[in-house]
Amino acid sequence: MKSKHLTGDQLLAALSALSNPHRLRVVAALAAGGRNYVSQLARELNISRPLLHLHLQKLEEAGLVTSQLELSADGKALNFFEAAPFAIDLTPAMIAEAVRTLTTNPEK
């Protein structure tokens, strides 16, 4: 995800996803340690797997992480996540451009 091509809705999704300290920790852990599967990441971050799944879902919907389901040697399904490459340059001009494409009306 490159910030120059973000629509208003994409910008809102990314900023919303990053506005939570748990999700910031998830992105930081994946950026530092590379791809990881949910159970291991939950242990490293000291967070429950169900709660981690909710945070990962929000990050994935915003395009900030990606996932891939793989089978282990013993046939167990492991969902691996990794940080997606992204850059968000927040400038007044970029925000003004993104606002023109908003489809979400926050006043509703």
UniProtKB/TrEMBL annotation:
Gene3D superfamilies, per database record: Winged helix-like DNA-binding domain superfamily/Winged helix DNA-binding domain (1.10.10.10)
N-terminal signal peptide: none
Domain of life: Bacteria
Molecular function terms from GO: DNA binding; DNA-binding transcription factor activity
Keywords recorded for this protein, A-Z: DNA-binding, Transcription, Transcription regulation
One Pfam family per UniProt: HTH_20
Boundaries of every HTH arsR-type domain copy: 13-104
PANTHER family per the UniProt record, alphabetical: TRANSCRIPTIONAL REGULATOR, ARSR FAMILY (PTHR33154), TRANSCRIPTIONAL REPRESSOR SDPR (PTHR33154:SF33)
Protein name in the entry: Helix-turn-helix domain-containing protein
Originating organism: Duganella alba
